[in-house]
Amino acid sequence: MNRIFILFAILLTACSHDSAGIRISHNEQAAPSIAAKPVRVEPVFFNGKTYNMSLTPDGQGGYAIGLLGMSAKQSKEASELTKTAFHHFNCKDSQVVKLSSAPAFDGAQWNSNGRCI
Questions:
Q1: Residue ranges per domain, the chain?
Q2: pTM for the whole thing?
Q3: What local confidence, expressed as pLDDT, does residue 3 receive?
């Protein structure tokens, strides 16, 4: 009995009376929502350790790249791993990786931006 009452209440609240008849929904446009950028985190195995690479699309064909797990002293390794792993996860074989800047360490991870060209 309670299920029927709840179902009936939901149906009544969803309907509205209009001159064109009873409608279940309105044809109003919803305010555009700000879509969250999907972040992909990929494990990368390099020199006996596993690092995490986060890839976030920037909306202009490029990606913000974060490499977590390397120390501040590993700039050369971070640069090479960023290029190699980014190519593996995003680019076709015929494409090359172009980093807009060298990876920079922010205290927790190496960050850079790149795209396939």
A1: 40-116
A2: 0.66
A3: 77
